[in-house]
Amino acid sequence: MYSSSYSDDEEELEQYELIRKLDHGRFSVVYEGRHRTTQQLVAIKQIRYGSPATFQREVSALRQLGKTPHVIQLLDSVSTTDYSYLIFEKLDSNLEQILSKSTMLSLSWIKSCVQRILMALKHCHAKKILHRDVKPNNIMFCQSTQELYLIDFGQARALAEKGSANADADMTTQVMNRNYRPPELLMGEKRYNGSIDIWALGCLFSDLLLKQDENATAAPLFSGKTDIDQLAQISALIGCPDEKTNWPGVALLPNFIPIQLLEDQERRSLQDVFPQLDSSGMDLLRQMLTLDPKQRITASKALKHSFFTTEPLPCQENAPSFSSFTRAAKKRKAQIHSPENTTATGTPLPSAPSTTSDKPKGRRIQF
After folding, report:
1. Of 79, 86, 258, 352, whose CB neighbour count within 10 A is largest?
2. Is 170 a catalytic residue?
3. Domain 14-90, CATH
């Protein structure tokens, strides 16, 4: 029924009707929509301009990945004079919403969540695709199947094959939300690999672990207001990047700055922050949050870690309930996506008209 081909025909969009606005980002707005013939609910991602780099990256990455476990499936893609559109299966909730709720998370569900994201990243990295924007808002869930999906490949980048003309090409450091950005990007590394996604997942893993405490606040593990502040927070918990002790070659990075903690600055360890985590879980977390990207664990090796074979075993049953945004969710979203924590620029696209009925009627997409 659906075509994954790129189309310039605006009539293609007449197959869909808009219902309501779901969310917006710096470059796009996501609507709930409905296919007129099948009545299937879909998510319609409207991207500004006719063919921006984010649209091209996302379509290219998703086509290359194909039907990959735990990666969102692209149903259709359409381009018009003013906008580009991506059509996806509609999902119910994202991890940011779950973290913002007061519900405590079980370790078995946390294990299942991390395990499934690792599966998605393993397939991405095997295809030489870096996601470059792993964060709670980009992890979606389907309530009926309890399945998890990695979404939003707008910042994805395909690595060139070794020996090719572009194999040693520089890449931008201005990707990923700062709260989940690895130290090598903060210090200007322009030639990186899938280890940046693993660091981001390590931060997300920490976010989930913090929700084992009912009194914990729903805040990221690292939340620096500037790149230097972010590096300082990382250094206070993980250790200061050092050429001799933990990261050979770090001093050669373009923006390397020796970090020295003040005498009165609080020093903590991962064990201090997560005393409830057993030795296998702590080992995996440390390997994911290793300063030296060359020593950071890969997705493939992480999936074989004993953390996933010790009790309690990963279980996606008894997952948190998926409901609409709460006030706390909106507050957390504002914190994570504040201008100082993002790299893109732009203003939100217009929203769909509001409706008052329980089952809102759709409207044709306007051009």
Report:
1. 86
2. no
3. 3.30.200.20
